[in-house]
Specification:
Low-confidence stretches: 1-7, 134-153, 156-160, 162-166, 436-508, 522-532
Number of helices: 20
Strand order of the largest sheet: 2-3-4-1-5
Strand content: 5-15%
Structural class: alpha/beta
Mean pLDDT: 68
Order of helices and strands: HEHEHHHHHEHEHHEHHHHHHHHHEEEHE
Radius of gyration: 31 Å
Shape: elongated
């Protein structure tokens, strides 16, 4: 008899959720209350960079609206989400306004249903008939169907000059406004209460910043021109810079920043920047880690993990947090021999944070790369790494000092936990090759006399070598003259790795270069090895 075995799930998805692990519900609740009671029409922009939690904020707001509808069965709010990215991937950019209108009409139809007032249902039918007649379509049009999209495309198209009939934009807007007014009216023509009265229509528009900027701006213009009616609230998840780029693409580079702001303010009545600095990142990290760590380890160390994240990476971006945790989870599966206990897991996590921290720097900030410095010393051996750590710890407010504090290696009297520090040093030395697979670390022992690596290392001691990189575009700067470190591996030709040694022509004589080339040919048989 087979048994159902529950496998441990690895990784975190990038899906939006209404589970508030960031403690963001307070401002989302406030936005929901504003939506429920504000004057209309109203357009609200939830602003933030990629991965900052805009889609999750929309989900949390909708959760509040669901609770509102439960408490107010006779005064429902109709709401729907329009995900622009799903349509743009179908190369339907030009038809996005059509799909937006179809989404809104479908939302109203679903909310009113068969139990809605005769007046509301008549308004829906009237709008459908009027649009069908204007587009020259005699067949019945079903809300939300492809047929609707087809005739709206024709409907909203500019005049062709051949005399074909189109519905003026103002008439279309008036018809939509009349429909929503009828649906929002608490009584029917006879003065009887509507069974499915809706107080307002809320349309959430997500992923605007994933569209081409000009497409995003055109969609906002269409929304303003056709759907900006009483009882309507639009909630947009957008990066303001994308809208500015769209304005510039339509009106040219000469448009001033002030004019861009005027365009934006005309469309958006309430801009709201996600307060990412107020996110409870420690709680968020602890919540995620509790799903991956053994409970006993999670209870004891989750706070330390969260502190490491805050002090080293310093990012409040939920997407970045999940990406780091996914890599951490994966490396434990790939290299179980390096992760033997809870300390090793913590060390691995910190090492990844250092790597991501340096990669996230702007180019002009990369004069000091903590991870590469650590990794370089680790490849030289445990003792050089420990010397480097001690040098760094003598400095105040350095990254290494922050790392040691976050690990809990420093006691209250300022002394260090030497045992834990030694363990971290050994761990980092042993995994120094993991994060840069093209790098081959030397063991603590000298290579055998006459070995390929020893010969190559001797030649690399010559002055003039400033840089080594591979076809993966990784670059390693030699900051210490005469370094004996070889920060690359020599792969066979089938691996496709290109190893390039670059010399400073001002310091390396032609004889040095010629000798290096000649010796390299002898010791790098079967490898791609180029000098320049």
């Amino acid at each position: 008899m087979s048994k159902n075995i529950e496998l441990k799930r690895h990784g975190f998805t990038d899906q939006a959720t209404d589970n508030d692990s960031l403690n963001a519900s307070s401002f989302c609740s406030g936005i929901a209350t504003f939506i429920e009671t504000c004057d209309t029409p109203m357009t609200i922009a939830i602003q933030g960079g990629w991965g900052s939690g805009k889609s999750t904020a929309l989900q949390l707001i909708q959760k509040e609206l669901r609770n509102y509808n439960i408490s107010n069965p006779d005064n429902q709010i109709a709401y729907s989400t329009f995900n622009t990215w799903q349509y743009s991937t179908l190369e339907a950019d030009d038809s996005l306004p059509v799909y937006l209108l179809a989404n809104m009409l479908h939302c109203i139809s679903e909310a009113v249903g068969d139990e809605g007032s005769e007046r509301a249902r008549h308004a829906i039918d009237s709008l459908r008939t009027a649009l069908s007649r204007a587009a020259g379509i005699t067949a019945e049009v079903t809300l939300g169907s492809d047929t609707l999209a087809e005739f709206l495309t024709k409907l909203l198209a500019p005049p062709t000059g051949d005399g074909s009939e189109t519905l003026p934009a103002e008439t279309l807007k008036n018809n939509i406004s009349e429909l929503i007014d009828d649906c929002a009216n608490p009584t029917d023509k006879k003065g009887k209460p509507n069974k499915r009265h809706i107080s307002r229509v809320i349309l959430f528009i997500d992923d605007l910043d994933r569209l081409r900027p000009e497409t995003a701006f055109e969609l906002l213009e269409a929304m303003k021109n056709f759907l900006d009616c009483k009882h309507c609230v639009f909630v947009l998840a957008v990066d303001r810079d994308v809208v500015y780029q769209g304005i510039e693409s339509k009106y040219g580079n000469s448009i001033t920043p002030f004019k861009k702001r005027q365009f934006f303010d005309k469309i958006i009545q309430l801009p709201f920047n996600l307060p990412t600095e107020q996110y409870n990142v420690p709680h968020y990290v602890e919540t995620l880690l509790s799903q991956k760590l053994p409970k006993s380890e999670s209870d004891r160390y989750s706070e330390r993990y969260a502190n490491l994240f805050a002090t080293i990476l310093g990012s409040n971006n939920p997407r970045t947090i999940k990406r780091v945790l996914n890599v951490w989870d994966l490396y434990q599966l790939i290299y179980p021999q390096y992760v033997l206990d809870e300390d090793d897991r913590l060390f691995l996590f910190a090492t990844l944070l250092l790597k991501y921290r340096d990669e996230a720097k702007e180019p002009d900030e990369k004069d000091r790369n903590t991870y590469n410095d650590l990794s370089a010393h680790a490849r030289e051996g445990t003792d050089p790494l420990k010397d480097y750590l001690n040098e760094e710890l003598d400095k105040k407010d350095c990254v290494i000092d922050t790392l040691i504090n976050a690990f809990g290696m420093r006691a209250a009297d300022g002394t260090y936990n030497e045992e834990l520090l030694d363990k971290f040093t050994d761990f980092l030395s042993s995994i120094s090759a993991i994060f840069s697979p093209e790098v081959t670390p030397f063991s603590n022992q000298e290579p055998e006399s006459g070995s390929v690596l020893n010969k190559l290392r001797e030649h690399l001691k010559r002055k003039g070598l400033v840089e080594v990189h591979t076809s993966s575009k990784e670059r390693y700067d030699f900051k210490r003259p005469g370094s004996s470190l070889v920060p690359c591996s020599l792969r066979d030709k089938s691996s496709g790795v290109y190893v390039v040694f670059k010399f400073d022509v001002n310091r390396a004589t032609s004889s040095v270069l010629d000798d290096f080339r000649e010796q390299s040919k002898k010791i790098a048989q079967g490898c791609y090895l180029h000098c320049r």
